[in-house]
Amino acid sequence: MVAESDSAHRPALTAAACTAVPPTLRTQSRRRLRPITAFLVGFLTLASLVFAPTLALTSAQADTKNSTVDGVATATDAVEVTVSPTNAPELSPGQDLLLTVTVHNNTDAAIPLGRVDVYLADLALTTRAALDSWLRPDEDANSGEQLVSVRTAGIIPTGTSTSLSITVPADSVGLTDQNAWGARGIAAILIADDVVHAEGRGTFVWSQSSAITPVGLASILPITTPESTTGLITSKALESYTSSVGLLSRQLDAAIDAPTTTIAIDPQIIASIRVLGTAAPASAVAWLDRLAGASNDIFPLSYADADIALQAQAGAATLLAPTSFDPAIDPSRFVIPTATPSPEVTTEPTDVPTVSSRTQTETTPSPSPSPTPTPTPTPTPSPTVEPGATVIPTTSDLLAWNYTSTAIGWPAAGQVARTDLNVFAASGLTTTILSSGNVEQSDFFTPNTAVTLPTGLGLVSDTVLSAAIRAAAEATTEDDWRVNVSEAAALLAIVSAENPNSVRTLLVTFDRSSATSATRVGQTLAALDTTAWSNAAPLQSALDSTPATTVSFQDEAIDSKRVTLARSVLDREGAIAEFSTILADPVVVTAPARLDLLALLDTSWTSPESGWEDQVRASLAASFDLMHAVTVTTRGPIIVVGSKVDLRITLNNALDQAVTVRAEIVPSNGRLVVGETLETTIQPNSAQAVSVPLSAAVGNGDVVLRVTLFTLNGTPLGQPAPIDVSVRADWEGVGASIFAILVVGFFGFGIWRNIARRRRERASEASASAAQQKLAAVEPDV
Fold it and tell me: Which ranges constitute the DSSP H helices of 22-169?
């Protein structure tokens, strides 16, 4: 647990593999170290390091040549050389040193027949800094004393690799019982046509009969899935991940192969399998059974592996957790079969609690019962539930597991601020896993992993050691694996030897963002456990170790841009929660929103190429559309004639469930007086017209009515909608007068017409009578 230098962040394979050298820069000639020079270098090094084992030189070794080589960073178009012990990183007196040297020709030209010279470092590697300097040398670094020279088998064509098995006789090694045990450096230099093409460096551990205090090595292996924007893993993805060669199967295989390693699992995986009920893929159910039967200690990560440091720095008072899975549950998948045979227990009892009986109509999760061992990890009904009944699992049921501890928090490496620790503690996390970049060390010796924090206990992962072990676990070839295991073994030997009177426990962690390729976890940890200076230890040993007094917490912070974006999605979730109060069933919106928020805070999104910023902005845009799904569709202009009218306003609901809102209308001036605020319910995917009583107050003119929708708690839903209204209050009197005139005119005209008609009738009757009388007067008497 040492705060590493910049070079410690380089890939471990590069560290132990090779240093390529342009052919034009090097020749075969090497200067010989004079005895007095070697003595002075050794003496000064011993004095600076308090003590250091010396390399006893036989007379034969005194006559061998020392060599130097320029250190050049490895490139993809260069020649690379790796060197590592063939069988084990440990060498004892009387044993030959068996080495494997591999040459990788990545250039566009063949390498002619040449030789490989093997060198031993002049001094033992007694400090972590010395190991780093040996594996990552500066220019003109001394390669040590030559042991043997071996001819290559032939021409090495371009784009190919060749391996040489080299045996250095015990007498040529030159180490005896008088040499203190510890890490030693070896180098292999490829020379062809009198030109040095490349140098590779490695290590082994000289082990004789000295008393050794082993270092306890605790390890944590995460089981996670790739980043996603949704808070539940789909059935199709689960089927792929849990197949025989799937991601989760490979991760669980690695954990089971290393029974002392502690599993840190994303609870999202467990919940995603269980929430599918009887529709869960068979491979996923079997995978959950295997997890339950694993002997490893296990603790939960944050749901969806949401970065707890990012949550804290974005303003969360306590860490977030799922609120409900009800919207994702299909009740038909949780029907109790009519006949359920008693399953035969073939594995250790799992840790899944019996699902509490909860009918489909219930909306409030009931308290989770105490864990009850069952032979299957899928939710099983209570014996009191009748066959054919639907039993919906609660949130606690879906997340429950028999964890070794639930008080451990694991934030992203090197990004924890001091104030974050208070949020962790308020959320029940009393132990925080930190990286070396989050602490400062004031002492030379490597201390215990445990450190006292202001709010509890910290476990500091050794970043340099973790890098070497991760590289070994992810190695794709035996050659790469040997190189990195040798570096890890040398580092553990240095820690053991630097303070042999102190029993210490170190912690290494595997990277959750690259766990897909860690297929050699068990092989790597088993190889280190076989050494005399390292013992595999459970996580409890790290928790029980004496906290280091020479290590203090170093305040760090996440990039401000990232924190700002995280704060925006946290604030938006709060707005969604308030918006959802208008819904008939708020959980339908709030539960998925919380799960998706946690998925966006996944630590896997920290890689620059992940596109996290784009996903956050897409999430904000989607939530904006959700919160603007209830709108006012009425627009002006509207003419209001009269002193009192009812204005009809149309409200639209684009959601799939009914909403209840309050509409508040505020006029821009005093020409209109609006009645009381209206409360109305709008059915799903429909529009609803509401009547608003208006009263004209002063004169005529234009008024803008600003219609704002509110939740029943008084939170506004979006911006006010303006409606242009033209008020013509005096038109009511003019209209009444005109109407009265028309009525009087109408009736007057009717009366006049009746009088005129009657006059015409009388005149007609008089005319007819006169004509008749005249006719009678002119007729002769008969």
Answer: 35-48, 59-62, 128-135
